[in-house]
Amino acid sequence: MHSGLELTLMLLGSAVLGVVAFRMLHLPPMLGYLAVGILIGPHALALADNSATTDTLAEFGVVFLMFSIGLEFSLSQLMAMRRIVFGLGLAQVVLTIVATMLFGWILSTQLPPSIRISWQAAFALGGALAMSSTAIVVKMLTERLELESPHGRKIIGILLFQDLAVVPLLILIPSLGKPPEELASTLAVAGLKAVFVLVLLLFIGQKIMRKWFTIVVKRRSQELFMLNLLLITLGAAWITERAGLSLALGAFVAGMLISETQYKHQVEEDIKPFRDVLLGLFFITVGMKLNVALVLSNWWLVLLLLCGPVLLKFALIALLAKLFGASDGTSMRTGLALAQAGEFGFVLLTLTAGANLIDPFIIQLVLASMVLSMLVAPFLIEKSDQIVMKISSNEWMLQSLQLTQIATRTMASQKHVIVAGFGRSGQSLATLLSEEKIAYQALDLDPERVQEAQAGGANVSYGDAGRKESLIAAGLYRASALVITYANTPSAMKVLHLVHELAPTLPVIVRSHDDTDLDILKKAGAAEVVPEALEGSLMLASHALVMMGVPLRRVVHRVQSARDERYAALRGYFHGASDVGDDPEHTYVRLHSVTLRDDAGAIGKRIEALALQEVGAEVATIRRGKDRLEVTPRTELEMGDVVVLRGSADAVDRAEKRLLN
After folding, report:
1. Phi and psi for 430 in degrees, rounded to 5?
2. Superfamily of domain 583-660
3. With 442 labelled, which of 73, 238, 310, 582 sits at a CA distance of 20 to 30 A?
4. To which H or E segment does residue 340 belong?
């Protein structure tokens, strides 16, 4: 029996070694924790066992994880993605639980009565299997720059609902262990307790929270701020536990309350070290529960439980995504990314074991299959493009069509600039390049932004700059420069590697958050590394113009003129789905393209007659056919004109109504 200090040192030492090893293999640290737990657990090397100390530390890990989920809870984001979250996400969780219960019922008819699976057990198992790994999936999507892609948004929406679904499951599963005759009353009492506690915390607690945080912050003590944060998190968890609910539920509510204050981002940074360390210990304890000998002796059952749920979730999610209007490729990529088990699956499985709903033998097999599915997940996501290509013949055609469209746009271009990413910085750069009569071709993965910008006359195509085929289609061999306008070092390194392989003499300008990765990017072949935000976009433009042969004095003059005009020519950007939640009050200046159809009320009218300034908007530019018109108050609008409006979201909406009605 180890002392508390010896046990803690062993856990920390093994965790460090495990995370280092898995980092070197470019795998998520979570898998390192699980592997370490399996290795040092009582069923392998027996260096540690599941003592009360480790279980308590593990429980706190779940508490801080749920606190972080609550902290990221955004009502505006939920409303913006409500069709995906409450449509696709809800359907995925409910149908996974239903499918598991149906499978459990069929299996029970074939098994001896002693090991039959009750509907309560099947429900709990279904809830655990319905979860996917937010940590693994988001990390992989971020590295692959696919968060804003069509499948990326669907994946994030489903993960968001899974996080929300954990809250009622945390209440339901412990209650399912009660005798059948007491189940209804137990659930009713648990529901009433949950409602009472949530009302108490959300409505009364919210008012107290804001005032109390203001008092603490005014003391100007980082130590006091941290102590207060721990007190609120653990205090809310204690309240829900005393009410007969879970610790994690209280922590989730505490996170929600703080997310509504202006201290959200500071809290998020301060709580992260506690969350990551304690959550790592939780995954170690999960691994320690795995009986390796039992799993090896029943490897065929583990393999069946691995393949069955993974294939079921893949098919179910892909089918649901297809029913919600996604293409074949998007549907399959969504299914592949979410087919594995997740962090909360282990939490719910631990609750299920604690409620004695399932035989420990089955728990071991399910636990092993969940761990293996998470080990497989990074490889599935990494190879998702190849898998989709082999399964779907339509995907070949769509990919070829995309590349053909990009190539068609750049076929006549020589000495142009390839702009990787068409967010705010990319659009600012494109504005200055256009004014200098320098051709450019932008690539972006936000389909809504691409559609809006194309309607406004921008030379942008849907494409991934991290793919060799997209760069070649964009005219890499004929280009004079490539500018990476998003600050993501891993993705920039990937693009630099491709450029070095295909066109080693092509100058590449890279945007970064700061100078931390400057040496790495320079060694990878970047001609220039430029800092953040709008000032960064001006520097990107100046380097690009100099490389295009524009005299340096003229470049400096243009950049200075832009500053003198308070960036008027650069204000606003085409809004994409990825910008949801970026500006909750809709006050950020944006651009929006409006096409005047034959029934538009503005046709035949002058701009001054529309009085758009009354609603807070203005006309940034007008595209008529292939020409951009010089906008004056006396410009008369014609059918087919594309009017690009500038203003806040509300102002642009009102101006659009004036143009069309």
Report:
1. -60, -35
2. Regulator of K+ conductance, C-terminal domain (3.30.70.1450)
3. 582
4. none
